Amino acid sequence: MRAAAGRDPTIPGNRGTAAGFRYPRIVKRRTLAILAGCIGLAVAPLLPVYPQRVMTRAMVIGHDGDVVSYGYEFGSIPAYFEHLRYVRHEDYALLLLGIDFTLALAVAAAIGSVPYVATRRVLARR
Q1: What is the dihedral of CA 39, 41, 72, 91, to 10 degrees?
Q2: Which end of the chain has less Cβ packing within 10 Å, N or C?
Q3: Which carries the bigger pLDDT value, residue 95 or residue 22?
Q4: Are the C-beta atoms of residues 74 and 100 closer than 8 Å to each other?
Q5: What end-to-end distance do the CA atoms of the chain give, in Å?
């Protein structure tokens, strides 16, 4: 007796929707990796781990004028773009932006690896 078409998992390439059908592991891993990457890319720009060059201007009482000092502080990517109008005078603003985006991708990969590994372990127990 022949099984209904689309339900016979013994036919190569025809897994159908039979009870007990399981997606291949590569599909699960790829889906998990995409979801974990999206989580990482959503969270990473908001973390204040990106170095920014800042200028501090202090007014001095008397005839000494102003005191301007430069330094670095950590900020987020949205804060970087808020201060972008001040950065255009820098000689290497594009280099700093490239370093920040490379760091953002590394942070996103680190953040995304946590739910990826945790979900794989949970699914492996089943």
Answers
A1: 180
A2: N
A3: 95
A4: no
A5: 33
* 92, 97, 98, 102 alpha-carbon torsion, rounded to 10°: 140
pLDDT at 119: 82
Q: Which two tokens stand for residue 12?
A: 């190569």
Does residue 48 contact residue 76 with C-beta atoms inside 8 Å? Answer: yes
Cα 18 to chain centroid distance, Å, stands at 38
Assigned token pair, 43: 């969270």
pLDDT by residue (tens digit) across 89-106? 667 777 877 888 898 899
The answer to whether the CB of 103 falls within 8 A of the CB of 49 is yes
* Residue 81 banded pLDDT, cuts 50, 70, 90: confident
